Every structure is written in structure tokens, then in C-alpha cells.
Amino acid sequence: MTTLSPPRRENRLWLVVRDWRGLASAGYLVVLAALALLAPVVTAHEPNAQNFDAILAPAGTPGYLLGSDDLGRDVLSRLIHGAQASLLASFLAVGVALLIGIPLGLVAGYLGGIVDSAVMRVVDTLLSFPAIILAIAITAALQPSLVNSMISVGIVFAPSVARLMRAQVLAVKEETYVEAARSFGSRGRHLVLRHLVPNAIQPVLVQSSLLLAHALIAEASLSFLGLGVQPPDPSWGSMLARAYTFLYQAPLQMLVPGIAIAATALAFNVLGDVAQQALDPRRNR
């Protein structure tokens, strides 16, 4: 008798690479990460090196491809070095959100009852606050710094992760194979780790790629307000804050980090969208 085998997961993951949008987004992010890691090698100047003879130098000035800021610092060098802080901040914030949200959603969905109600009321309370206002409040309480600001952003993102994980667990635990596992004596930790988590985690991982874009913008917002990366260390948000004062004299200084933020956020969003399509079980092979 012939049996139908389920579609291999590798085929669906391969769709991310076969889609030109996913390939372009992944390529851009890989190049950006490589530049950030090799920043001391590929940049001509130290990010904080000042040259008072080249203050607000225009783009194309010898030695300053994208010009310099009001302290004579190379914009290109600060842009590449700032990518380190901005990318690290995005992954840190999403990591905190997953570390908090996944266990909460899993516990609420699996145990149900009063535990589910208590967890969801806390989640609803946090979601009722405007995200950036709550992040600012938490950052101010923890003292302004890159790590503290991203911990606050992760706490703000955690409720949405918890809600999604809870919804997935509630759906998965009613599946036939979970009932079959229970009938064979699977309980507690074995049931959760072997059946619930592997089958509920995929949408959460796709959502995390979308949260990376939101975390990048949140880091830029907090650094713009002086609550993220502290001077003189560079980040794209702090570059925007510094360039804002000289918008009319040197508009390119504000345009360059703004384009970098927009392009990176778009790459994260497109990659998440392509991954969601590739992992959708309803998609034809």
C-alpha cells in the first residue's frame, strides 16, 4: 500500500532562498553584518576621531566619502561602526522578548484555567500602554544605556510574543497527534518539549524576524531621545539626533543613517514575510 509522505521542511525553507526578495534581503543583511564585524578594518577613520579642519565637510571630500559631522568625524566610519550597535540592539531586544514571551505563552496555553487568565490579564495590561512610552519609562528607571534600552524594548515586545505562543499552543494541543501522545502516556515535560513546542514555535520565529525591524526603529528612537547609545559612541539613532541640529547646513548627515535604518528594517520585514510564506503549511509544494 502506498503512503503519502508529508512535504519535507527543507523544501519550504529553500523557498526563502529561491524567492528573489528573500535572497536580496538576506544578502543585504549578511553584507551589513560583515561590514559591522570588520568595521575597524574597512573604515578609514576611527569613529570618534575629530578633525577640526573638516567640520561639516560635504560628501566627496578627500578622505570623507560621505562628508563629516559638526566635530569633523567621518560620517561613513560612524555609519559602519554604528551598525554594530544598531544590529546588536535589535537582536538583544528580540532575544529578551522571546526569552520572556515564549515561556509565558507556553505556560498560559498549556495549563489554561486561572493561570491562563492571570497571565493574559498582565499581558493585556502591558499592551494597553503605548509601546514607545512604556519603553521610555522602563529605560529611565533602569538608567539610559544601550543594554537597558533594549531590555526595555524586549519587555515591551514580550506580550505580543506571549499572545502568539499561547494561541499556537491552544491550537496544537487539540490536534489528533497530541491526543494520541497523551493516550500513550506522554505527559508534562515530554509532551511539551516533544510535541507542543516544535509545532507551535514556527510562527513565533517568523514573528521574531518582523520584531527585529521594530526593535531597530525603537533603538533609533530611544538613541535619538538620548536614552540609548550614549555619546560619543555611534549608532544610527544617535547620528540622527546629532545631525538634526544641522539639517539645513548638511542634510546628507541625516539622510544617510535614515536610509540605513529604513533599508535594514525593510530587509527584516521582507525576510519575515518570505519565511512566513515558505513555512505556511497551506502553501502548495
TrEMBL record:
<feature type="transmembrane region" description="Helical">
    <location>
        <begin position="250"/>
        <end position="275"/>
    </location>
</feature>
<keyword id="KW-1003">Cell membrane</keyword>
<comment type="similarity">
    <text>Belongs to the binding-protein-dependent transport system permease family.</text>
</comment>
<feature type="transmembrane region" description="Helical">
    <location>
        <begin position="20"/>
        <end position="42"/>
    </location>
</feature>
<feature type="domain" description="ABC transmembrane type-1">
    <location>
        <begin position="83"/>
        <end position="272"/>
    </location>
</feature>
<dbReference type="Pfam" id="PF00528">
    <property type="entry name" value="BPD_transp_1"/>
</dbReference>
<dbReference type="InterPro" id="IPR050366">
    <property type="entry name" value="BP-dependent_transpt_permease"/>
</dbReference>
<keyword id="KW-0812">Transmembrane</keyword>
<protein>
    <submittedName>
        <fullName>ABC transporter permease</fullName>
    </submittedName>
</protein>
<keyword id="KW-1133">Transmembrane helix</keyword>
<keyword id="KW-0813">Transport</keyword>
<feature type="transmembrane region" description="Helical">
    <location>
        <begin position="87"/>
        <end position="111"/>
    </location>
</feature>
<feature type="transmembrane region" description="Helical">
    <location>
        <begin position="131"/>
        <end position="158"/>
    </location>
</feature>
<dbReference type="InterPro" id="IPR000515">
    <property type="entry name" value="MetI-like"/>
</dbReference>
<dbReference type="InterPro" id="IPR035906">
    <property type="entry name" value="MetI-like_sf"/>
</dbReference>
<keyword id="KW-0472">Membrane</keyword>
